[in-house]
Design a protein that fits this description.
The protein is mainly alpha-helical. The chain is 83% helix and 0% strand. The longest helix has 41 residues, at 42-82. The relative contact order is 0.19.
Length: 98
Amino acid sequence: MVDKAEISGYVVLIVGVALLVFTFINAYLFLIGVLSISIGDWVAELGELLGPLVETCIRVMYLGIMGWIGALLTKRGIDFLSKLPRGVKKEAEKKSGD
């Protein structure tokens, strides 16, 4: 029988890996987009570029936070699963069966 602590460890691990995969897919889709800058009036260009720059900063922060959370959850899930006493449970089951 699978322990509740082991199930929650696997759930945290899977959620962390899913967030990392989602983040890398978003980063790839973001990086293949093409941004073009035309040559012309610098004041008008600065006004036109300010919106996309702010949007880019928000996307970068979003991807960074999502990647950070995914990595933390993955690390916590692996740490949680690695600290479960596997050999102790099997030995206790063998002794109770004798």
